[in-house]
Amino acid sequence: MPTRPPLLDSLGRAHTNLRMSVTDRCNIRCFYCMPEENVEFKPREEILTFEELVRFARICSALGVNKIRVTGGEPLVRRNLPELITALVKIQGIDEIALTTNGILLSEQAEALRQAGLKRLNISLDTLDDDTFFRLSRRRGIERVLEGIATAQRVGFEQIRLNAIAIRGLTEEDIVPLAEFAMQQSLELRFIEFMPLDAEGNWGNSAVLTGATIKETLEEHFGKLIAADRPDASQPAVDFKFTSGKGRIGFINPVSEPFCSTCNRLRITAEGKVRNCLFSTSEWDAQQLLRNGGSDEEIEMLIRDCVLAKKAAHGIDTPEFEKPERAMYQIGG
User: Fold this and answer.
1) In the 3-class helix/strand/coil scheme, how is 47-79 assigned residue by residue?
2) How does residue 98 score in pLDDT terms, banded at 50, 70 and 90?
3) Range of the domain at 92
4) Fewer CB within 10 Å: C terminus or N terminus of the chain?
């Protein structure tokens, strides 16, 4: 239970969900996230230690945060990650720890993560086709992702969600095969619209394959989708069920249907910058407090200042939108 007043922004949105990046490094190079070559990563000494991350999470928990998603970069390239999961699980008030991964290293680490107390996995799976995977990630490895999914199921993960980035002119042919795979494996699938967070600046509205278009494609193949319940009003996805009763599918449409009015998320980057929005152009430096004797109260005030400064919406759909200088891998997915 929170022991301090909740984290409210100026619009009264209570923030209860923390996205925690543990590294900006990755073992693939998806063009919607990072450059192909010559990537400049933060020096390792600038990356927050597990102790610093746990302290920050503990302070957030006292302010009402009850969910944490561990992200990157690719979080599984961070050495000894299960140790962090174990420590986060022990924080009073944290009800759920989730992890977002590209799945490349998952078969090697799934058992240790499960033993550490991790309950939920979000696995990126944009395609089942090896060539399309290479076009997207500029590396090979789809078979390792599929092996990671199978291993996670085998070791007992029951909450596995597949995330597919949808890009016009590239992933249309993957819509139905991904849905069929998810149904066969009894996994939840979410399609996510391509967002302006790519490092090479190639994003444009013409590349956005909208959730509405994907839904039409699925209904042409499977029949009408049935609206599913929405247990969490702040969740970014609109979920549906198939008429067959098997499987659940969701659409995250930040470009065509922004959901900012119910956003409850704040973020901390791998080097300790706090952000109130994925598309924020401002950051608050928690690292300097964590490493220079800052008190819990001072860190709390920094978090509150960050949340209070949150804008009403990201504004992608407006002429005033300003693309963040940092790409997705530098912020945390």
Assistant:
1) CCCHHHHHHHHHHHHHCCCCEEEEECCCHHHCC
2) very high
3) 17-331
4) N
The per-residue pLDDT for range 21-67, each reduced to its tens digit, is 999 999 999 988 898 888 889 999 999 999 999 999 999 999 999 99
Query: Does some domain include residue 11?
Result: no
C-alpha–C-alpha distance, residues 319 and 113, integer Å: 43
Instruction: Read off the CATH number of the domain in which 248 is found.
Output: 3.20.20.70
Q: 296 to each of 6, 46, 293, 299, how far by Cα in Å? A: 16, 20, 10, 5
pLDDT of residue 2: 57
Q: Which residues contact 258 (CB under 8 A, 6 or more apart)?
A: 313, 314, 316, 317
Residue 23 domain flag: yes
Other C-beta atoms lying within 10 Å of the C-beta of residue 88: 23
Count the domains in the chain: 1
How confident is the model at residue 195, as a pLDDT?
82
- Classify residue 114 as exposed, middle or buried by CB count within 10 Å of its CB (0-12, 13-18, 19+): middle
Burial class (CB in 10 A: 0-12, 13-18, 19+), 65: buried
Structure tokens at 67: 């969910």
Examine residue 259 and state whether it is found in any structural domain, yes or no: yes
User: Which is it for the CA torsion 149, 152, 158, 162, positive or negative?
Assistant: negative
Residue range 109-118, pLDDT digits in tens: 999 999 999 9
Query: Is 169 among the domain residues?
Result: yes
